[in-house]
Amino acid sequence: MMMILPFLCFASVFAQSGADVCLENSALQLIWREGKNGYQLQSVTLNDDVGKKEHLTMAAQQRTILYAKNKPLDRSTVVYDHAGKLIHFPDSQYRYVIPVWSQSLSPVSLNTAGEVLHYQPTIAASASRSTLRFQYENEKIVLSEEWNLDPDHTHDIRVQMTLKAKQSGYYSLSSPSLAIADRQQFQWAVIPGLFQGAALNPDFVDAYAYGHGIPDRPVIVRERTASTLAALLTTQSGVTLATVAEPGTARDPWLKDAKTHADWKLGLSLMNRNKELTPTLYHPVLGEAGSYLNEEQEITFSFRYTIQKTSWYNVLGHIINGIYKFSDFLKLKETKRSLTDRLYAMYDYVIADSTSKWRTVNYKNAVIGAQDYLGGVYGSEKDAMKNSDYGAMWMLARLTGDTTLKQQRLPAALNFKLQQQQRKPGFFYGSAAGQYYLYRSQQFTEEWGPYSEPIGTSYYMLMDIGNILLFEPDRSDLKQALRKAADWLLSKMHPDGHWEVAYDNKSGRPMFEDVADLRPTFYGLLVAHQLLKDEKYREGAIKAANWFVEHAAKKGWFLGVCGDTRFAPDFATAQSIQALLDMYTLTKDPRYQTTAYQVARYYTTSIYTHPIPSREVKRVNGTARQDWEISQVGLGFEHGGIMGSANHHGPILLSSHAGLFVRLYGQTKDSLLLNMARAAVWGRDAFVDANTGVASYYWDAMNKGAGPFPHHAWWQLGWITDYLLSEAAVRSNGNISFPSGFITPKVGPHRSYGFDKGRIFGRSVDLKMKKGLISLDNAKIDYILATNSDTKELYIVLLNNSVDQQEIQLKLDKDQSQRLFGSEQRGACLLNADGTDEIRMAASSDWKISLPATGLRIIKISYQ
Prior knowledge:
Elements: E1 20-24, E2 28-35, E3 38-47, E4 53-55, E5 57-58, E6 64-68, H1 98-103, E7 115-118, E8 123-128, E9 131-137, E10 141-149, E11 156-165, E12 169-174, E13 179-180, E14 186-191, E15 195-201, H2 204-210, E16 212-215, E17 221-222, E18 230-235, E19 240-245, E20 267-271, E21 277-283, E22 292-293, E23 298-308, H3 312-323, H4 329-332, H5 339-351, H6 353-356, E24 358-363, E25 366-373, E26 384-386, H7 390-400, H8 403-419, E27 436-438, E28 443-445, E29 451-452, H9 454-471, H10 476-491, E30 502-504, E31 510-511, H11 523-532, H12 535-553, H13 572-587, H14 590-603, E32 617-620, E33 623-626, H15 646-649, H16 658-668, H17 671-681, H18 712-731, E34 736-737, E35 740-743, E36 751-753, E37 758-760, E38 763-768, E39 774-776, E40 781-788, E41 793-800, E42 806-812, H19 814-821, E43 825-831, E44 837-841, E45 846-851, E46 856-863
Parallel strand pairs: 15-16
Antiparallel strand pairs: 1-2, 2-3, 3-4, 5-13, 6-7, 6-12, 8-9, 9-10, 10-11, 11-23, 12-21, 12-22, 14-15, 14-18, 17-20, 18-19, 19-23, 20-21, 24-25, 25-26, 26-27, 27-28, 29-30, 30-31, 32-33, 34-37, 35-36, 37-38, 38-40, 39-42, 40-41, 41-46, 42-45, 43-44, 43-46
Helix pairs in contact: 5-18, 7-8, 7-9, 7-18, 9-10, 9-11, 10-11, 11-12, 13-14, 16-17, 16-18
């Protein structure tokens, strides 16, 4: 640690020669000393609440400008590992990954481009202890810096750098290096959306492509998959230093009337050019727009540092809410179509053969049914079929009582599921044969190659069949299939509790051995134990979950489930949160709950928090849209990082994590999780197809609906229901609750409902969907229906999904109402969120009701 030398902090216009200059408030003290080459930062001291001082370690190379006379090459360069061996990655079949991976190997990305101009300011001026100005000039540049302690955030230092060119060329301003951490010992480092970990990882591909730890090279990444515009570093002593771009610095993904998501205005790194571990930002990016200057032209870069003796997550929350005003986004939401309305529209969508692309074919003397899948599938001749969310299918049939679903869709979908299991004796007996069925070649296959993944068996055998069994618990054929799948999964688990990522279908040899199965594959054994009550599955789940905790969750290292991006970390990370919570329910081991909460904090870095949404009017395919309507803020990745789909398409609208985040808020009172859930869900009408209620999958598709993915409607039915029921449970303090099923495969942690009775203020009720039973005149209000047949009661749970008080007119269809119990109304009352009677209402079919901001009210209607 550095000793603080005696100094004089001058407040005159210009500091005296040889004297120290400083910035100082109750929390921070920064001291610069003038030497023969200029002013050098000597110390950064942090004062905690009890008067203890923390002295940070200074960087050796503190100030850097990058310069290039000619534009740097934008093509990929050859990269070697530390043994001098050429790195070949990825394989040629990964056509979605190759372009972005190549971009990430450019000299600018690898931070090898340009000439390095090191400098130290030669003039310092100070008007107060909270403001400091530096100046520097050489034959190429005139540079000024203004440093201000933020009066609203005592741990923040705001900096504005201005560079004037004396020679034409390309320039990139780098944030000065305040302090560094030991490369061998630090608590945590993270660029949200790209890298995280507690150690440098010398395996370049593992760190750079998969975000497993921190690359040990000073790479510079793009803002397009940086979920929050900051680099954060927590030292071994627990001090978190973050360098944060001021709002407006980075690209706007839809600047005016077209996608500008890939523009590169801000570079983020966890090292300076000298390879010292310190959060560093670059603007403009060398060779990119704004970096070329003619003589006398200027560029400006505004950013801030925040230095606190607290966790990286607390500092991240400060950046998201304090600097980027995330929670204010909810105030802009003007919902035009309620989530409930979308559910009923998608109910129509999935019933109609034409819109849902439902197809049945004969396979091995059975009629199997699924939806056409028009995306890329290995071996497909545009003949792939897929079912996505079996829990949602059975849930919708139970809630609506729909005969088309019960008599036509579910039997064919069930046959599809049973035929999806490997029945041929041998290595794969009992496993899943593949996600997709190809009706021309009459075979099941995986999406991206002739291989089988253990997590595929957890997904498409154990979790899917498990959800069906919740609704049809007496199906012996399903139980038999479940046991075969669980036995196969258990047999392939290594003694320490881990699985291979995949096996080659012909040889049975492991594949993708360069990465570990850092996914919640163990969840399949939990499902098997819950339904079959066999202790060996419980023991296997515990062993595998323990391995996952140690090798994935504690390290912040995860693997995804999308083969087309070679398993880049994705929404399976969110699944692991719910899987760990379910392990806690099973075992009561608090380690699983604690770990789940930690993984949830990691997953907040998969949610966009920039740029700040506004009411600025933009054009989208000829339609005027306010900026907030098409904002990426609050939306999560399919997969981010260097090679995920968010590089091309931005985030996704399928927000399976929303219900989980609401439930986690109920347990932890972490408001960031609740606000993220609501920001993802509320007011997303600009992405919803008007006719079907189906949202587009990728952000850049805007409102084109399901497109080539008709099965996605089932996932949307599932996650929206999960979100609404989670909100009802939290807002009622658990007095409105329904038993939840198992996690759905692949896209996130949402769960199915309706297989068993729930409770509303102690009364046993059945969850229902009755299209047309009620109508509301306010799209900000969603509702849930439930009935009690014994007492002849209808419950209408009303949710105000806005931050303002709302007034509604609710109308009840008289004919449908009478058919519920075959009798007329006897009376009604309006209940508060705690279940107390607020207003006794006469029997009617038309009520005016007021709901408080983000509030809940319940209408209980009694029948004769």
